[in-house]
Structures are given as structure tokens and as C-alpha cells.
Amino acid sequence: MIAAWVQGAEIRAGHSHKGEAFDSGPRTRPQPMTQIGMAHFPITHKNPEVQKWFDQGNTLLHSFSDFEAERAFRWCVKLEPENAMCYWGLARAAGDERSVPFIQEAAKRKGGVTERERLYIEALEVRERTDRLRDRGDDYRERNVQYKKILETLCLKYPEDDEARLLLALANMGDSRYGTELILREVEKRQPEHPGVHHYRIHNWNYHEPEAALDSCKRYGAIAPNIGHALHMPGHVYAQVGMWQEAAIAMDAATRTEVKNMHAQQVFPFNYWNWGHNRHYLSYIQEQLGLPELAIAGARELVDAPQDPKSNGEAPYSPHSQGIRSLARTLVKYERWNELLDAKTIPWRKLPADQLLKAYVEARAHFALGNREEGEKAMEALEKFAKEKAVERLYPVMATDLKARLAFAKGEALLGLGLLSEAAEKQYAMQMGDNDPPSYPEVLFNSLGEAYLRAGAKELAIGAFEKALVLTRNDRFALAGRERAGKSRSVTLPGPQRAYRTEALRSYGPDRWSPFAAPALAVVGTDGKPQTLTTQKGRNTILIFYLGKECPHCLKQLRDFQGKAAEWKRLDTDVFAVSPNSPESSRALGVEAAYESIRFLADVSRENAKRFLAYDDFEEMEIHATILIDKEGMVRWSRMGGAPFEDLGFLKSEIERLEGKR
Length: 662
Prior knowledge:
By secondary structure, this protein is α+β, with helices and mostly antiparallel strands. It folds into three domains: 3-228, Alpha Horseshoe (Serine Threonine Protein Phosphatase 5, Tetratricopeptide repeat); 230-305 and 318-508, Serine Threonine Protein Phosphatase 5, Tetratricopeptide repeat, CATH 1.25.40; 516-659, Glutaredoxin (3-Layer(aba) Sandwich), CATH 3.40.30.10. Helix content is 54%, strand content 6%. The chain contains 29 helices and ten strands. The protein has helices at residues 48-61, 66-79, 84-94, 99-108, 115-128, 139-157, 162-172, 177-190, 195-205, 214-223, 228-240, 244-265, 273-288, 292-304, 319-333, 337-341, 352-368, 372-383, 394-409, 413-432, 444-454, 458-471, 476-484, 552-563, 565-570, 583-589, 591-594, 607-611, 648-659; strands at residues 516-517, 523-525, 530-531, 540-545, 573-579, 598-602, 615-616, 621-622, 624-629, 634-641. Strands 1-10-9-4-5-6-2-3 form an eight-stranded mixed beta sheet. β9 (624-629) and β10 (634-641) form a beta hairpin.
């Protein structure tokens, strides 16, 4: 909560003076952004600069660039702390539990706003705040209904307010597709280049009649080429309609743009939720284009990306998890059976999802290579997950699929065809509602078509391949199978498409993420001698920015690091602790004697903290930061925030992973 605004509220060192809600999110000031489109949202303000940043934040929200939008709205709050609409913007950008305290702050100040602004605040207030007296159990649905009612009032009272119409379109998106389309057309007549119009149209028709969004697919990326999501979303539609070349161009451009922005902001793939999704989707599209080496390289990039205990760990949609699925899918589709059986190929974890997929792909590989006994052992491993809730959608399909493979291996072709047909129907039903890369490694109607071909049943094979083409338009595997069965390989496209050439996309940014060079470190030790990172070549460095002598939880962090001194030595790693304390102050405290494995360094001016993003520009104070720099001086991982980083086991394992010692 934002309790620190209450007179006398306790403020913990390193934490925001404005309360817990500000401890998450961006801590450095925004920069003017170009090529993001324009969405003007007039608000009451005293400082003209507030309107400038508010418009940038609002524009970014229309492309779901929430983190950067929050940065802009935070600067608005710094410029005008009592401006209610700035907190309204923060509440929208946060999009999580922090939205509630932010909208509460907006509501406190709504007495000084216009009627139009008051309605915006009250709309978001009813959606984000639970009414304990009126909660009937399905509280969010009812709150959303009330939210849309107030937006409808805004639309009626202010017929020229396009922002109200677009928020209503966003709230109705996918539920009332035609009604949403009519709202978008109304706004488009006045603002044909508004990024929200084209973004929301793409989402609106993504799962139904995707051709209706093709024109917006062309325009959205051109309007906002510096936003990865604006380039990414057209790729969804292009994949839906079977325009795989255009889909690849969209996803590749999006991935490169995200990498360019990550490098510019000194952040990591796990900080950009859309990067992993982009890269995963691009690998899937590259499979469809017959580019397995590119698809595999992309999957390995996801697997090898810096890990993080919070944002790139075991969650199903972390980059690492998506990389494992992507790698398994490509290797199955392209029948790389020996690679799948090589223990070094995929870094399987002990998670049920990983172990189920491992058992499945290994069984497939063994059956394909004629190792029936080993295939049955893998089936036994898979059966252990029959009652595991985490994999309840996948298990029945995989179990039936593998029974079919076993039947074929035993020479019981008729039984195998029946089982594979059953599995194909289940997989079809599971994937029909999907608009992301499929969770199943293969379209089983393609497998069924191949099995019919082997049995000499060409008409049945054509029928199976046709079913696969309903599920995945212009699926290259289904088209090739249908052609072998005797039906021409005709391809129907809803529009022209360009050829996918990676060299033509270089202007968007690098084709893959790489660690970035560490900023300059210019500090002095307790002995008064200068310390830089140039002397660290050949050694890893953990750089800890702590808050100085008055910070007890910083000192606990340093004690914990001292306790792992032997581990850091084994891993050729030095630990530097940087604070605003002067060398004299650190000597007086006797820190190097107390923490003998740590080098204490002075950053009295805070200039180093600013270069390493360990400084809050909004509140003008240093914050906690832990940064891992490799032997070549490249930043491999970092964590900034209101509390010191305490998972030293993760840091040890990440250094081991980098060193190849795991």
C-alpha cells in the first residue's frame, strides 16, 4: 500500500518513500520515444511537460508496453504529485495488485478534476476495487460490467473523445467482435493512424475471421515500428491465415526490435515478457518454412538466455520453458531422433511437464529407430504422470499416441491406425482454440496421413492431411503429404506476401540477444586507490550496490556473501560492494576486516550507481542492486529494487552454467 504518504509512516532504507507500490516497476527516468505512434489524451495540468509524458505513456499503453508506460506516468507524478490523472495512468500501466493503491490515490484527488476525468477515474476504480458488500462470488465479471457502463457514459457525454471509445473497444474485444469493429471504424475515420485502432482490431479478429484484420496488420507495424508488440501481433494473424512468409517477417522484426531495446535499456530477456513469446513463435514459423536449423538455433537461444529465479525459471511461459518445448517440437517434426536421445541436447528439468515431454519424445525416437523395448520403457515413464494435474491436457493424447506407435511396432497396423485416429482427434480439439505455437509437438493428423500412405490408403491419407490443413492453414507437412497421396499442392493465400529474408531485417536490430558491456566503474577502495573493471579481465565479478552503514538488511546480504567466500573463489569470482560511504567512513566501520572476501568501494557522488541503474531517478536516491559481470566484462544478470537480492544459490548456479561446470 502507499502508506508512506501518511504522516510519520516508516520508510525502510532502499524502499520507495511513496510506498510499496512504487518498489516494483521502473526506477529510471523516461526518455522521449519515437516511432511508437501517437495517442493524445488531454488532461488537466499545470506543467506542460506533464501532458507530453502523459501522452507518451498513453500511447505506449495502446501497444501493451506497460513497463515503459509506467516510467512515463511516474515522471508525471514527480512533476505534479497531486495530479489525479497521473495516478490513473499508473493504475492502468501497473496491471497487477499495485493498480489498487494507485487508483486509490487517483480517487483521493478527483475533487480537483473535470467531470470527464472524474468518470475515467471512477470507471477504473469500480473495476479494480472489490466492493465487499456487493461481491456475489463472480466479482471481477460484475466489476467489468460496471467499468464498461461508465465508459459508455463517457462515450455519450463526450462524442469526440476517441480514448473513451478505444478503452470500451478494448474491454469488449473478442466478446462483441462486430460491435468492437464498429467502434474502431468510428475512431479510424478521425484518427486513421491511431495505434490502438489497428492493435485492437488485430486482437479482436485474431481467433475468428482473421482476414478482417489484414489491412491493420500492414499498418500497425508501420505506425509503431519501434514497439516489438506492434510488429509481433500481425504475425499472429499471418500465421492464422497461412501467410507464413509474412508471419516470419513480422516475428523476426519484432524479436530484433525487442533485442535492440533491451540493449539500449541494459535489461535482459527475462525482463521483456514478449521477447520469449516472439522467439518461440518465430521458431514455430521457421519450422513451417522448412528452416529447421534457424528454428533450432532460436530454440537454443531461448534455452541459453540468462535465467532468473523470479522471471525465467520453471514457469510454463518463461523463455527457458518455451525454449525446451520449441526445441523438442522442431526435432520431432524433422525426425532428429538421435539428437532427441542425446542427453546433452535438451536440459530436461524434474518438472512434470518436462518429464512427460521427455518420456514422449524419447518413446517416439525409440519406436522410429526400431528400438521397441526402449520405447516401451519410455512409455512406462510417461504413465507415471497419468494423474498429474499439471499435465492433464497432454497426457491422454500422448498416451494414446504412443499406444498407436507401439501397435505399429508390433505389426498391428489396423489397431495402430485406430489408436492414432483417436489421438489425432484429441490433439485437434486441443489445438483448435490455440493461437500460439502448439503445445503438442506435432499435428497428429499429419502422422495419421503418413500412416495411411504406408498402408496404401491414399484417399484416407488425403482426408487426414486435409484435416491437418483445417487446423494449420498451408501446413507444409500436410501439403507435402497430400501431394504424395496424389492431390496437387495448391496453396490459397488471402493476400500477397513478401519473401522472408533475414538480411532484409537487419535495420530492426540484432538477430539475437547478447550480453552487453558493463558501464564504466570508477570508484575508490578503502585505501583510496582507484578500482575499475579493466583489471577484472579473466575473472567474474559480482557487483553489489548497497545503501551504506545505515542499512541493516544490506549488511545481512553482505554477511551471506561472505559466508559463500569459498564458492566464489572456486568460481573465479570477486565480490565488490559499492556504497555512498566515503573510504574514511568504511575504514572507520572496519568493514573489510569483518567481510574479508569482499572489496568495499566508494561511490560518494552516486554516478556509478546511476550508470548501473542502481539509482531511483524519481525519488533521487540509491537502491539495491546485484549485478553479475563475466570474465569478458559483459553484464550477464542483474536485479534492482527495494530489497537486497538474497538467492545466492541461484547466483552460484548461474555462474556455473556460464562456466560450463554444471
